[in-house]
Amino acid sequence: MRLNILASASGLSAVGDTLTVVALMLALQGRPGGSYVVSMLVLIGILPSVLLGPVVAPILDRVETSRLLIATLSLRCATGIALAFAPDVVWILVFLAAGSVVSAIDAPALLLLVPETQRPGANPAAGYARVDAFRSVGALAGPALAGFLVGVLGVQAVLLVDAASFAALGLVVLALGVRRHPPADRTSTGPSWFHQIRVGPAALAGNRTLATASLALAVAIVFTSIITVAEVSYTTVVLAAPAFVYGVLVSVQAIGRLVSAAVLAPLLPARRQPAALVAGGILMGVALLALGVWPSIPMAVTGLFFVGVANALQSIAIRSLVVSSVEPGARGRAFAAVIALNNGATMAGTAAAGPLVAVAGAAFALMLAGAGTIAATVPAIRAVRAATV
């Protein structure tokens, strides 16, 4: 019951996140230099978790998680309100950056709290799958709802709705009364902050299965990130399809993720999560490769559905591996390290995708993305076999 409530509130927050992104893109795209500002929006949303996430991560394992999450969600609500009343683009970027910095703490904090809402001994993958399913519903409904609300209420009101979603999630965490306490032996004379920062990456590197899985996933993400840039050109140029088809394909990918999180991922036991991550990588690579080799609308629908399925398998598996492989007192820093690694890979892949699509075309870019994803995943197979024997 507690898991369902937390997952529902997280899904509501996902709707709010989508509302803000769509509302700001609609508001800023038509201004002078709008395309550069939109690029800045995307960069600001990712960069703090890469640069600051591991630096502030020790607080995740030093402060009781629900208290920390309530505090950070309150700050997100405050920055959201400030964003709604920002007088110009500069202040919009400032308040977005402030919220993104706070999210470097609240994102891993929420991941830490999910297992605490489950019964003792329950499969953490089932918990993360539940949250992912609700967030997928939010991401699926968000864009259409954002377009409607911007037209009816205006950008400012939509931004205030997003701010309210953070307050709602914070109130849910408070009402649930779920607690995750830091290690009992923590003292004021403990290791330096720099030493504590190193614990997160060391936790990933110290377990062979987790280290191999994390590295394979990050390298694969560099290639899979190409699809974000290539998808528009693939739809409008390669498929010569109208703009609404692009919207359909984006929705199909979200539906694939929802189906995977709601139906497939919860059925996989904890010991099968390494295999699920590898299977997700291979499936992702094959789907992307097929999109590039056999471009057609039916193939695009099928391929992007399986891209969504694979994406959910990968994200749920890596979270479950952190829970099963890292001692409780270091999990916050381990989650922050995984998020930073994956978001850094996303930035690298997205940056490379623009020139690649411009020079080689969207179909070739997707073929390269598929082949690269498979190549990045195959080395993890041996580690997975060792972990599941």
From TrEMBL:
Signal peptide: none
Keywords: Cell membrane, Membrane, Transmembrane, Transmembrane helix
Pfam families documented for this protein: MFS_1
Residue stretches spanning the membrane: 33-56, 68-86, 92-113, 133-153, 159-178, 215-237, 243-268, 275-294, 300-322, 334-353, 359-381
Molecular function GO labels: transmembrane transporter activity
Membrane topology category: Multi-pass membrane protein
Subcellular location as annotated: Cell membrane
GO CC aspect terms: plasma membrane
Identification of the protein by name: MFS transporter
Organism: Leifsonia sp. NPDC080035
Taxonomic classification: Bacteria, Bacillati, Actinomycetota, Actinomycetes, Micrococcales
